[in-house]
Amino acid sequence: MAYRIPLSYNPIDVDSFAKVLSSYEGVHHNQMVTDFENAIANLTSMPHAVAVNSGTAAIHLALLSLGIGAGDVVIAPTFTYVATINPILYVGAKPVLIDAERETWNMDPDLLAASIKSLKQKGIKPKAIIIVHTYGMPASVNEILNLAKAEGIPIIEDAAESLGAKYDGKLTGTIGDVGIYSFNNNKAITTFGGGILITRNPETAEKARYYASQARENLPFYEHINVGYNYLISPLNAAMGLSQIQQLGDKNKSRCNVFKEYADVLKGSADFQKDSEKQISSRWLSTFLVKDSSTKELIINQFNTNGIETRPLWKPMHVQPLYVNCEAFVKGVSEDYFKRGFALPSSFHSLQHQQEVIHVLTNSLKMVT
Ligand SMILES: *Cc1c(COP(=O)(O)O)cnc(C)c1O
């Protein structure tokens, strides 16, 4: 079903895109890729960036460049989009899933500690911890980093949804050993599909680039020792990224304003991820929890009737048929949030659309008993 008002509209500034393209007339097209990588490296103050054709590919490359393979264990949150977890299977490793904490909806550090301890008792050391800042809200990074450091486990930061969000003044994606962003159509900025891997470690970046370009050995002829992938971004997508990156601040500000307006309307009727002194969400999606699943259904039905797109929150990975047999450390939080939560349109084509959505929301709240 096509919705009149979509969940996450990403305005395309055609003039700016055209300007970027025309500035590369007569220049080798790969320069657009290099410049986009440099632009993200500058934005994030990271020395290395490898631009690829999806965020999922960037996570796959992060695992490969950390040397993770068959039989290894990787710890990850259960309350996330499937693209966080699937790359663990691509490399033949085993996901161990951790429930969300109530405040941030992200990986619960206490359950993470319990999982590390339990694995240790079985003689297993996890090869990486993937953290996600879901819907733009930073996870409890310090608590997680302390646990990871104590055990010498690298952190992969899946910041696909949180470009611009900050933890303790630091941009999400720049805190772990490897970070990734997604530039899918509905993310904070888009390249019409794409992603990037960022890191401070030159060897990690080099390995990521190697695996992303068919694992070709550095020799004067085509020599192959490992299986590689065709993951590099196309120059046209990179050009789009160069145009969009200029608008990141405005785009994020607009999403934050939309969120605030909903939060006012929903005051007393809904809960949400709260900013803290350290954690500032970029509000990629405006997401809320109401008191029970029937209230959620009522509100979503009202939006459906009006041709307005909403989405349920993530169905946790540990209850997905694909992942139901994975080891999981859970206490009911993500399952509860899946029942009671939903996402509302978080960026708009026009102010009129925005007002219409607020109107429908206000009316549907009046129907709640
Ligand atoms: C969007 C997303 C990805 C994957 O990004 P793609 O560019 O769509 O491949 C990975 N993880 C999370 C949490 C996401 O939301």
What report would you give on this structure?
This protein is an alpha/beta fold and 369 residues long. It folds into two domains: 14-246, Aspartate Aminotransferase, domain 2 (3-Layer(aba) Sandwich); 248-368, Alpha-Beta Complex (Aspartate Aminotransferase, domain 1). Helix content is 38%, strand content 14%. It has twelve helices and 14 strands. It has helices spanning 14-22, 30-44, 55-65, 86-90, 109-121, 141-151, 202-212, 235-245, 248-265, 293-305, 333-340, 351-367, and strands at 48-52, 73-77, 94-98, 128-132, 155-158, 166-167, 170-171, 178-182, 195-199, 279-280, 286-289, 311-312, 327-329, 341-344. The strands form three sheets. An eight-stranded mixed beta sheet has the order 1-9-8-5-4-2-3-13, with helices on both faces. It has a three-stranded antiparallel beta sheet with strand order 7-6-10, with no helix packed on it. A three-stranded antiparallel beta sheet has the order 11-14-12. Helix 6 (141-151) links the parallel strand 4 (128-132) and strand 5. Helix 1 packs across helix 8 (235-245) and helix 2 packs parallel to helix 8. The radius of gyration is 21 Å and the shape is globular. The two termini are 29 Å apart. Bound molecules: pyridoxal-5'-phosphate.
